[in-house]
Amino acid sequence: MDIGELARQSGSAPSALRFYEERGLIRSSGRHGLRRQYEPEVLDQVALITLGRSAGLTLDEIGQMLTVGGRAKVDRQLLTDRADAIDDQIRKLTTIREGLRHAAACQAPDHLACPKFRRLMGLAVWKAAVTPKRAGRSQPPPPRRGGAPPRPTSL
Fold first, then answer.
1. For the segment 98-114, what is each residue's pLDDT rounded down to a tens digit?
2. What is the pTM of this model?
């Protein structure tokens, strides 16, 4: 199949497919005129790349799991660690969702005066402060005494 057909079937842009090929994640089997040609099993490789990216894996991590023949060599510990990180993210997002729903329904004239909303804000800040960050990302300030986050300032 040519690059256009692979793009249609995989849902990936041709530029992404060329990038994956440059990174050594997939291989074309040749060219027909100017168009790159791919074997049908490359579709499975692209699906694995897409799944890995959706799970938050880097292309290097995904590349370590794809062998030269295109078969998957699964790093079970890496997948377990990533699943744990996704669980943590789900917990954080659940807290945020609960806070937003409460804020939408809360009858308090000032949401920052609502004890439940402030408790949810404090919990969100505390979780952000204790969660290890990836290199290159800034760290949030620690929570204030009493667990309440600082009041937002206008810009």
1. 888 888 888 888 878 88
2. 0.65
How many CB atoms neighbour CB 102 within 10 A?
Answer: 16
53-73 core/surface letters (b: 16 or more CB in 10 A; e: else) = eeeebeeebbeebbeeeeeee
Report the alpha-carbon distance of residue 60 to residue 52 in Å, rounded. Answer: 11
- Measured distance CA(11)–CA(101) in Å, rounded: 34
- Number of CB atoms found within 10 A of residue 128's CB: 16
Tokens coding 65: 């799991």
Is 23 in contact with 46 (CB distance < 8 Å)? no
Q: What is the pLDDT of residues 1-19, one digit of tens each?
A: 999 999 999 999 999 999 9
